[in-house]
Design brief:
With 147 residues, the chain is mostly beta strands. The protein is built from 1 helix and 11 strands. A 6-stranded antiparallel beta sheet has the order 1-9-5-11-3-2, covered by helices on one side. Strand 2 and strand 3 form a beta hairpin.
C-alpha cells in the first residue's frame, strides 16, 4: 500500500510498467472534470472509473482484494478514509473471477485518510475498505491497473 501526494506520482512509475501511462493521463486531464463512468486507457490492462460513491461507516465498508488488478484511488470531492489489512491477515474467502474481487467479513486493522490531491495504491496483497466518510457522497477516481 502506498499513500502520497499526486504531485509525487512520478516517483512511483518504476513500480509497474503501466504507471507511466497513468502519470501521463493525470498530467493531460483535469481529473475533476472527467465525466462519470469507465474510461478505457489501454484495453483491459488499464482503465479509470470515475464514480460518486456512497459514504460509509467503518462497519459498513467491506474489506476487498483484487488478484489481477491493483487500484489507484483518488478522492476528488472530500477526504476519504480507507481501511487497510494485509491480505496475509485475512481469512480466505471465495474469489469472484468475473469481477476480480474477494470480499471479507473482517474489519480493517488500520485506517488511513486520503485527502483530495492525494492517492492511495492498493496492490493484490492489500486488503482495503474504501469509501469511509461522514459525507453522504464521495466523488472519486479509481485507476484499475494490471498487476
Amino acid at each position: 500500500m502506498i499513500l502520497d501526494s499526486l504531485s509525487n506520482f512520478n516517483d512511483y512509475i518504476s513500480l509497474n510498467p503501466l504507471f507511466k501511462t497513468v502519470a501521463e493521463f493525470i498530467q493531460a486531464h483535469d481529473l475533476s472534470t472527467l465525466p462519470e463512468g469507465k474510461h478505457i486507457i489501454q484495453g483491459d490492462d488499464l482503465f479509470v472509473n470515475v464514480t460518486t460513491a456512497k459514504g460509509k461507516t467503518p462497519a459498513e465498508a467491506r474489506l476487498e482484494t483484487h488478484d489481477r488488478m491493483l487500484d489507484i484511488q483518488i478522492p476528488l470531492s472530500t477526504a476519504e478514509t480507507m481501511g487497510y489489512t494485509p491480505r496475509t491477515k485475512l481469512e480466505p474467502q471465495p474469489y469472484n473471477a468475473d469481477n476480480d474481487i474477494t470480499f471479507y467479513d473482517q474489519t480493517s486493522s488500520q485506517y488511513l485518510t486520503v485527502e483530495p490531491g492525494m492517492f492511495a495504491i492498493f496492490f493484490p496483497s492489500d486488503g482495503h475498505a474504501p469509501c469511509i466518510s461522514k459525507e453522504a457522497e464521495i466523488k472519486k477516481i479509481i485507476f484499475k491497473v494490471k498487476a
